[in-house]
Amino acid sequence: MDSANLVALSPTNALDERNIFAELESLELPLGTTLRQQPHSPQCHFATENTTNMAESEILECITEHERILQEIESTDTACVGPTLRSVYDDQPNAHKRFMEKLDVRIRNHDREIEKMCNFHHQGFVDAITELLKVRADAEKLMVQVTDTNRRLQDAGKEVTAQTEEMIRCRVQQRNIATTVEKLQLCIPVLEMYSKLKEQLDSKRYYAALKTMEQLENIYIPRVSKYKFCQIMAETLPKLREEIKEISMSDLKDFLESIRKHSDKIGETAMKQAQQHRTFNSAVQKQASMGYGKPLYRLNGKASSPQNGVDEEEEHDDEVLTAQDLVDFSPVFRCLHIYTVLGDRETFENYYRKQRRKQARLVLQPQSSMHETVEGYRKYFNQIVGFFVVEDHILHATQGLVTRAYIDELWNMALYKIIAVLRTHSSYCSDPDLVLELKNLIVIFADTLQGYGFPVNRLFDLLFEIRDQYNETLLKKWAGVFREIFESDNYSPIPVENEEEYKTVISRFPFHDAEIEKQQFPKKLPMSQSVPQVYIQVKEFIYASLKFSESLHRSSTEIDDMLRKSTNLLLTRTLSSCLQNLIKKPHIGLTELVQIIINTTHLEQACKYLEDFITNITNVSPETIHTTRLYGLSTFKDARHAAEGEIYTKLNQKIDEFIQLADYEWTMSESDGRASGYLMDLINFLRSTFQVFTHLPSNNNDHAAMSGKVAQTACMSACKHLSTSLTQMLLDSGLKQISMGAIQQFNLDVIQCELFASSEPVPGFQGDTLQLAFIDLRQLLDLFMVWDWSTYLADYGQPTSKYLRVNPSTALALLEKMKDTSKKNIIFSQFRKNDRDKQKLMETVVKQLRSLVNGMSQHT
């Protein structure tokens, strides 16, 4: 192969000498072959000639630049030749052609050097090949000998090799067995612990299973962790832990559901025990107050007394149960231990408290009809007590699952809700017995929870609010009782036939009268049947009010004051209202009103006995100064005043009824010579009526003065009203004419009234005080009867005037009525001189009276 072919093999690497030598080494040249240089082609010769013909100045400039580029190409890696070659194209025009010429020159130089080197080393290469050919025959012989020797050696050591392999196999088996035994000794405890774990899980001993898992993970599995079954076992343990957590959480949920269902029973048991304890304490206190030498005692939950003589078997109480006896708390303890071992105790605590808060809200939510029966309240209290008894047990049986601060917070929330619920539902109760039972339940509820360390002062404060409501229901109930008593009363003195009946009455009502006691049977007591009945009912009210005040942890003095306040409300509001309504009833006549006055007087006297009664039942010393007194005195005084006013009103109404029966002939010429029938009936009615006032109580000077004052006031009021009614009858605007005969008839009636007043129908009036009620009417009638106008007009306005009480306007109105009558009779009397003079006088008097009336109006 010539030099041209060598150059063509790697045109891109012609300048790299190492690549050229590698190509030469790969050639298979026959020995003696020499490399020749290929003569230059005519094109290269033509290019050289053309290059030499270029201007000398351009050649000189390019030679230096091309040398630099070729040096960079030879000294630079092939990957970095690009920028250098780019500078060839960025040079002057025809620079590329000159560079190619320069490159060809450089290539030819290198070809010559390569050819010299190959010629220098070629002979040595040929000699080495000749030597190798000579050695080939010896090597083949040696190879045959070695192969034969190896065959014979293999045949000779075949048995030894078999025995050696058997020995090696036995040694390997022995080593494997030893290793296996060693590893099994490590694995067997792991498998035994895992088997134990499975048994514990099957028997639901989860806490022990967790301890076993902890030993497996920390002690046993690390020893054999490289085995697959251990890896599987290690991967299984977290899953088992999660299963245990889920199972324990499921048990906890079942436990929470269980205690929610059993809270009622737990609370009922706890409240029953608290009630038994309170009853026992009350019995001990009662026995101590009675001075027994040997107090009651309790053995094994049995109340006994040495004096009662009752066998223990007959007084056997139910076995005292606790929360643990009614509910199995092991699930919550087990779950707590499991979560503690798993390091997730906080999650468990938060879940437990959250669920219990939800249950608390459900427990505190009452039924809408709870206020209708006491069982509704009892069930509500039982559930709440059961809830907090469970929490108290959890507090003392565990460490930190619930804290005192958490329970206090829960109790404060519950107490706020309980008070709101009781305040709302108790307001719906209208039955005092139901309110009293509610109070007893609240007291037992408070005592029960107080025994577990919960503050209950706000519940007792609530009881005072409910006590006010209880008093309101009592007042409503007793208002109905009083109404029934008053409606069934006959308002007549109580008849007593014998000593037994008399003692029966005075045993019911504190009545003492020396004069009546001296009288022989049968006799009458001044009050009616309603008095002892009202007195007994007031005592019953005090008893009912006392029932609520018991067990409120208040002193006897405080209870005494509360009873007095309640009794005051009964007297001043309920009883007073019933009396006022009774007095205003239309069917109550004057006789009944008089009896009511008598009754209120005796009830007022009995108030001091009611105070003593309150002092006795509250065990307060009589010397104690009470902050509250009974207001019965003012209550019954107001009732008497109302009855007296009603007497006056009814008398006046009766008088008006008689007045309406009057039938005067106002144009009569002469009177009948006797008083009108309606007026005589009226006077007879007044006489019989005022005789009733003699029955008013006059046992002592105060009562005598009071009865006399009532009778006098009624009589004076009746006379004044009668006088006013008669005057209004004369001056009635509907009456247009009055004759002198009618005046005379009217005068006869007034005379009967004056005779009645002078007959002293009611003792106690001084002189002619009662007759003064008719003085205005008497002077007016005298003025017209005597026709003494000159005196009237002359003395008008003087204190000593005979007709001082005759008003000019009144006289003018009556005179004009008589004037109209005279005008009708003027036709028949115009020929009589006296009548004409009288007519002129009348006209003159009318004018003067009018001037007096006008003068009075101007003065006014």
TrEMBL record:
Keywords: Exocytosis, Transport. InterPro entries: EXOC6/Sec15, EXOC6/Sec15_C, EXOC6/Sec15_C_dom1, EXOC6_Sec15_N, EXOC6PINT-1/Sec15/Tip20_C_dom2. The keyword Cell membrane does not apply. Gene3D superfamilies: Dsl1p vesicle tethering complex, Tip20p subunit, domain D, Exocyst complex subunit Sec15 C-terminal domain, N-terminal subdomain. Residues 102-271 form the Exocyst complex component EXOC6/Sec15 N-terminal domain. Residues 459-817 form the Exocyst complex subunit EXOC6/Sec15 C-terminal domain. Belongs to the SEC15 family. Component of the exocyst complex involved in the docking of exocytic vesicles with fusion sites on the plasma membrane. PANTHER family: EXOCYST COMPLEX COMPONENT 6 (PTHR12702:SF2), SEC15 (PTHR12702). This is Exocyst complex component. It comes from Huso huso (Beluga).
